[in-house]
Amino acid sequence: MLGAVIFDFDGVIVDSHPAHMQAWKSFLLTKGKAFSDAELSFVREGAKREDILKRFLGELTPEEAASYGAEKDRLFQVRAGELKLVPGFAEFLLQLDAVALPSAVATSGSRGRVEQALEFFNLRDRFRAVVTGDDVERGKPDPSLFLLAAQILQVDASQILVCEDAVAGVLAAKSAGMKCVGLAANGRESMLQQAGADMVVNDFSHTGLVDVTRLFAYLNIRTSF
C-alpha cells in the first residue's frame, strides 16, 4: 500500500524551469560561455549543481564550484518573483494531509535555493524531510536522494510514490524500487514512459490521491498470485 510520497522540486512543486534556465544562461554568459536552449536542457535533468558546472565549464576546484554556484543562485533569486506552484499541486498536497500521508522533497537542487523557495510558498513545514543535492555525493539518476528521503521517512521503498518530471529522476525512482508518476507538461510523455514511469500526467490537476493509490493496489493484485 502507499505509505509516503516524495516530490522532486523544480517542475514538480514549483514551475521554476524558465527562471532556472535563464539564471544558468545569464551566469554562463558572465563566464564567456553561450549555449543554446537545447544544450542547456541538461539543466532540467536533475543533475547536481556541481555536475552542471562541470558539464559547461569543465573541471573546477571545490572553491570555484561553491563560488560559481552562489553566483548562479543570486541570479535565480532575481527572478524568484516569477515562480508559481505547479497546477494542482496545492490541492494534491491537501489530499495527502487529509489522510496523514507523509511526504518529502528530494531534489538535486542546492539547499539554500530550495529552502528559500519553499519558505516563500509557506511549504517548508508541510514536508517531513527535505533532501537536496548538498546531502548526497551523486545526483540523479543515482537513487541516493530518494533512498535517503525514504530512510528519513522510515517508509519502505516499495511503499513510496515519487513524483518527477525528468528522465533522470524517473530512472532514479525506479532504481530505488519506488513507483513513479511522471509530470509531462513540457510534452515529454513518451520519454518519461520509456524511462519507466508508472503513470504520466500533465500536472497534478489531472490526477489525485485515489488515482495514484491504484498503482499500489495493482501491484498487490499482480503479486498475490
- Beta-strand segment tally: 6
Domains (count): 2
Put simply, the count of helices is 10
The whole-angstrom Rg is 17 Å
Please give the alpha-carbon distance between the first and last residues. 17 Å
For the report, how would you describe the main beta sheet? 6 strands, parallel
Quaternary state of the chains: single chain
In which order are the strands of the major sheet placed? 3-2-1-4-5-6
Query: What is the name of the CATH architecture of the largest domain?
Result: 3-Layer(aba) Sandwich
SSE succession: EHHHHHEHEHEHEHEH
Helix content: 40-55%
Tell me what you see in this structure:
The chain is α/β, with parallel strands linked by helices and 225 residues long. It has 2 domains: 4-15 and 83-222, HAD superfamily/HAD-like (Rossmann fold); 17-81, Putative phosphatase, domain 2 (DNA polymerase, domain 1, Orthogonal Bundle), CATH 1.10.150.240. Helices cover 46% and strands 11% of the residues. The chain has helices spanning 17-30, 37-40, 49-57, 62-78, 89-98, 111-120, 144-153, 167-175, 189-195, 209-222; strands at residues 4-7, 103-106, 129-131, 160-164, 179-183, 199-201. It has a 6-stranded parallel beta sheet with strand order 3-2-1-4-5-6, sandwiched between helices. α6 links the parallel β2 and β3. α1 packs across α4 (62-78). The longest helix is centred in the first third of the chain and has 17 residues, at 62-78. The radius of gyration is 17 Å and the shape is globular. The two termini are 17 Å apart.
